[in-house]
Design brief:
Blueprint: E1 5-7, E2 13-15, H1 16-22, H2 49-54, H3 67-80, E3 84-88, H4 91-100, E4 108-112, H5 117-129, E5 133-137, E6 153-159, H6 171-180, E7 184-188, H7 193-196, E8 206-209, E9 224-228, H8 233-243, H9 249-260, H10 262-281, E10 286-290, H11 300-306, E11 313-318, H12 323-331, E12 336-337, E13 347-352, E14 369-373, H13 379-397
Parallel strand pairs: 4-5, 4-6, 6-7, 7-8, 12-13
Antiparallel strand pairs: 1-2, 3-9, 8-9, 10-11, 11-14, 13-14
Helix pairs in contact: 3-9, 4-5, 12-13
Cofactor: pyridoxal 5'-phosphate
Protein name: Cystathionine beta-lyase
Catalytic activity: an S-substituted L-cysteine + H2O = a thiol + pyruvate + NH4(+); L,L-cystathionine + H2O = L-homocysteine + pyruvate + NH4(+)
Length: 398
């Protein structure tokens, strides 16, 4: 991982790895303890009427935040390079709130066709019911998105690489075209995290993360984050307040704790993920590997230009095989769990097929598709587990 050094608004020149360790901590308020305590509470007591009515208090009611929540928000805003961060109980809650912060009835929004499927369901169900039209676009459209812009296009939603299928988007080109027409640009930055992609340096107005994934890092908490630039900050703050979004303090504590090791974890996820991806690309059962860090990936040049690393998530397309053969392969795996989500310390694999819900593009691969998350296990052990799985697939198919 490149140890980028950015000057923040206070003039600090510290690498992202250093910020992971030191941001979101206030030893003076924590009685000297290294980690902030979990502060639970709803009611906040004021010493007198003047302080109750002044509006100047840092904390007024549990729904509006606590020291535990505030420290995580401050840490993520600093890490992202944004003006403010607001938290939500899940990644989808953060996505939904961020979208609603910028649209109203009669608006038109552009959303990448490779978007996280729950985001798509929210657009197709909730936004549609509210009178907002969603149009899906080819994720590799780049500057060509300007042809889809209308007078009422309010925002463009990006996700790079694409969920499941891993198309890389030219976000700077998309952002330039959107801003020229007065539209906002939002991105789901969960895959890269702010360590490997800096959305605000590439024209994004709001960066969204499912902090459930790499920030928490241990598959034991649900959390979402919206980080806005100065132009979008007031809208994000307002929707957060109006929705009463209130993550649990225990989850925020786990995110703060997980964040401290995210740098070393991500580096390991990247190294192991690339090694397994290269190994899979040489397997006779595999047709192609969808990992932007590989030179043969169609979006590799964009990844090299805009990103400083890769996480442990990618997909593969197998040569033709029956559903039963793939199940035989996966059901016997010992180190790869069959489960949704990703970003934890454990390796995972799930079959997927987005053909029924793509609309701007066609998903018609030559064989079954599998999405892998490479965890922190020994890479040779993971290869042995997968090799045994391929033996089962071949035995069933043979």
């Amino acid at each position: 991982m490149a140890e980028d050094h950015d000057d923040d608004e206070n003039g600090h020149d510290e690498s992202a790895l250093t910020r992971l360790v030191h941001s979101g901590r206030d030893a003076g308020e924590q009685f000297g303890f290294v980690n902030p305590p979990v502060v639970r509470g709803s009611t906040v007591l004021f010493p007198d009427v003047a302080s109750l009515t002044s509006g100047d208090a840092r904390y007024t009611y549990g729904r509006h935040g606590s020291p535990t929540i505030r420290l995580l928000e401050e840490a993520l805003a600093e890490l992202e390079g944004g003006a403010c961060t607001r938290l939500a109980p899940s990644g989808l809650a953060a996505i939904s709130a961020a979208l609603l912060a910028f649209v109203e009835a009669g608006d038109h929004v552009l959303v990448t066709d490779s978007v996280y499927r729950p985001t798509r369901r929210f657009c197709d169900r909730v936004l549609k019911r509210l009178g907002v039209e969603t149009e899906y676009y080819d994720p590799v459209i780049g500057k060509g998105i300007e042809a889809l812009m209308r007078e009422n296009t309010r925002l463009v939603f990006t996700e790079s690489p694409g969920s499941q299928s891993f198309e890389m988007q030219d976000i700077p080109a998309i952002a330039a075209a959107a801003h020229e027409r007065g539209a906002w640009v939002l991105t789901d930055n969960t895959w890269a995290t702010p360590l490997y992609f800096k959305p605000f340096d590439h024209g994004v107005d709001v960066s969204i993360q499912a902090a459930t994934k790499y920030i928490v890092g241990h598959s034991d908490a649900m959390l979402g984050a919206m980080t806005a630039n100065a132009r979008a900050a007031d809208r994000v703050k307002a929707i957060h307040t109006d929705f009463g979004l209130c993550p649990g303090p225990e989850d925020c504590y786990l995110a703060l704790r997980g964040m401290r090791t995210m740098g070393v974890r991500l580096e390991r996820h990247q190294q192991a993920g690339l090694e397994i991806a290269r190994w899979l690309s040489g397997r006779p059962e595999v047709s192609r590997v969808l990992h932007p860090g590989l030179p043969e990936h169609p979006g590799h040049a964009i990844w090299q230009r805009d990103y400083t690393g890769a996480s442990g998530l990618f997909s593969v397309i197998l040569h033709p095989a029956s559903r039963e053969a793939v199940a035989a392969m996966l059901d016997g795996l010992k180190l790869f769990g069959l489960g949704f989500s990703w970003g934890g310390f454990e390796s995972l694999v799930v079959p997927f097929d987005p053909s029924s819900y793509r609309s701007a593009t066609t998903w018609n691969p030559e064989g079954p598709a599998l999405r892998f998350h490479i965890g922190l296990e020994d890479v040779d052990d993971l290869k042995k587990d997968l090799a045994a799985g391929f033996e089962r697939l071949n035995a069933y198919r043979g």
